[in-house]
Amino acid sequence: MRHGKIAIRGFVDYNELILDVTIDSITQLRNLLLLSGDEVRIVRIEEQEIPVLPSDSLDGVNLEQLDISRCGLSVLEEGSLSGSALKHFYLENNDIHILPKGVFNGQNIEILNLMQNKISDIEDRALEGFVTNQLAMKDNQLSELTPAMFEGSSIHTLRLEFNQISKIHDNTFKKINNLTYLMLHDNNIDNLGSIFCQLETKELYNLSLVNNKIAALEPGCFEGSKIIGIYIESNRLTQIKKGVFNGLNFGAIDVANNQITSIEEGSFANLPLKYLYLTGNKLEKVSKTLLSGLDYVMEDLYLGENQITEIEPGSFGGLTIQGLHLNNNKLTCIKKGLFCGEEIEELDLSNNEISEIEVGAFDEVKGLVFINLSNNKLRKIKKGMFNISLDKINFENNEIDFIENETMEDIRFESLQLLNNPILNK
């Protein structure tokens, strides 16, 4: 047998070697590692020709991390990981087409990286007894997911983004133990049905469905599940119906960059929301019913990049919001009472068409420290417009050519930005 060539790359904890190796087969690697004793913990084999991972090829080897990326690997034989102690296993960018039963069953691997292969199928019960912090199958060729694929597994983070998934059977994710992060963005999912009902995981912190083809969310589609953050940005939603989020514990909802024109009254009622992203939709009006029943302290409410021309007074009544983002809309006038009774720390009204602000428009906003009015059409700043104390106010890129006498005495601020206004040229 010809011995492989080994190059020492560095050290881990001063006594655990990291090795790059050039070998003809995994069996040869096993023999080399058995000869080296238990000192080697990390091995990288990259850009070599290793088409098969044979049975028992790592038996007795005390490796913690093995990287066999870009090696043309296509076959994982049953029992190929038997007797191994791997914690990190990288098989990225190979030629694997199927995840067979008998390879990962009963294995406890902290990170299993199967990204950028050609996996189109996971055999039934192929992951039974498999325990991992992260199973990464990004950028494969999966089109359909069934419950039997993941049955009996324990997966903290499941990455299935950038596949071709168009069909997910009910209960596919129901019994995955400890599922906390589920990445399904950039697929072809168009209908949720009951896929995410009654999930048995304690808390799903992040459910990413960004950039799919979802056109509707039906009431009850998340019923009985403990989902904290749901991200459905860049889909095909046109409305939000009441009952979709009822009884749930969402801290973040992201439905930005859809085609939403209407939101039914009470859609967000009683949700402990910290973040609500409605950016980049087709909303034309903010009514009192939009956020009815939502009375929690919010970090950020994003309504920018819509087509909003009107805000009903009291629409944000009773809310405490750190950042209210209404930028890039079509607002023309800020009337007194528009923000009556709210507690808002930062208010972004930039990139609208605001030409008028009524005297006292911001007087009843509590806690306001920053207003961004840049890129509007303001021409005059009148006395009484800002009888408030601010850290910062931004008037950049307006048409301001007149500031009424004693106006600046009313505005108590630390920073006033007036760049690119005609008044600076006088």
Taking the alpha carbons of the first and last residues, their distance comes to: 88 Å
Sheet with most strands: 19 strands, mixed
**Count the helices. How many?**
3
* Percentage beta strand: 25-35%
Secondary structure class reads mainly beta
Please give the number of β-strands.
33
Oligomer: single chain
Q: Report the C-alpha radius of gyration, rounded.
A: 29 Å
Shape by Cα distribution:
elongated
Rounded mean pLDDT is 90
Taking pLDDT < 50 over at least 5 consecutive residues as the criterion, the unreliable ranges are: 1-15
Level of helix content? under 10%
Keywords: Leucine-rich repeat, Repeat, Signal
InterPro entries: Leu-rich_rpt, Leu-rich_rpt_typical-subtyp, LRR_dom_sf
Any overview of this molecule?
The relative contact order is 0.05. The chain starts with a strand and ends in a 9-residue tail after the last strand. Residues 1-15 have low confidence and may be disordered. It contains 3 helices and 33 strands. The strands form 8 sheets. The protein has a 19-stranded mixed beta sheet, covered by helices on one side. Strand 1 (5-12) and strand 2 form a beta hairpin. With 426 residues, it is mainly beta. 4% of the residues lie in helices and 26% in strands. It has helices at 26-36, 147-150, 407-410; strands spanning 5-12, 16-22, 40-44, 52-53, 65-67, 75-76, 88-90, 98-99, 111-113, 121-122, 131-136, 144-145, 154-159, 167-168, 181-183, 206-208, 229-231, 239-240, 252-254, 262-263, 275-277, 285-286, 297-302, 310-311, 320-325, 333-334, 343-348, 356-357, 370-372, 380-381, 392-394, 402-403, 415-417. Keywords: Leucine-rich repeat, Repeat, Signal. Pfam families: LRR_8.
